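FORM 12-B: Structure-to-Sequence Request
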């Protein structure tokens, strides 16, 4: 404190600021910046809202990362199981055809009526049943 007064001897002291008020401000700032004082005043109840927020974030992550793909997988499985003869379908490659025959591991599509062109594809390659959309 004496060092500050030596440096400031040539400067006029503003009104209202005294050595006592400076020491009071210093002590109040040291109490406020003490990390133990802040952690001791925090109660266990103040952690509850942050736990709720964390739980909500995990729920949203579950819905976007896990539930969405599961629903799509179920819909795709349902689509493949509902295929029947004479359904008009669209493959993942963009080929539109009519189902002629369905076996366990392949589906035969009639692509061209004039030349009687048939294509064999895997059931997983069928992306859309166009017959159901018209109904």
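FORM 12-B RESPONSE
SEQUENCE OUT:
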């Amino acid at each position: 404190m004496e060092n500050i007064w030596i440096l400031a001897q040539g400067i006029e002291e503003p009104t209202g600021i005294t050595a006592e008020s400076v020491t009071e401000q210093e002590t109040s700032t040291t109490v406020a910046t003490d990390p133990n004082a802040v952690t001791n005043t925090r109660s266990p109840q103040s952690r509850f809202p942050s736990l709720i927020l964390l739980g909500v974030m995990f729920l949203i992550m579950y819905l976007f990362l896990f539930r969405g793909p599961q629903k799509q997988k179920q819909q795709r499985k349902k689509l493949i199981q509902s295929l029947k003869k004479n359904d008009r379908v669209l493959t993942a490659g963009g080929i539109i055809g009519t189902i002629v025959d369905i076996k366990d591991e392949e589906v035969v599509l009639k692509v061209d009526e004039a030349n009687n062109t048939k294509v064999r594809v895997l059931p997983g390659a069928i992306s859309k049943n166009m017959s159901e959309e018209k109904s």
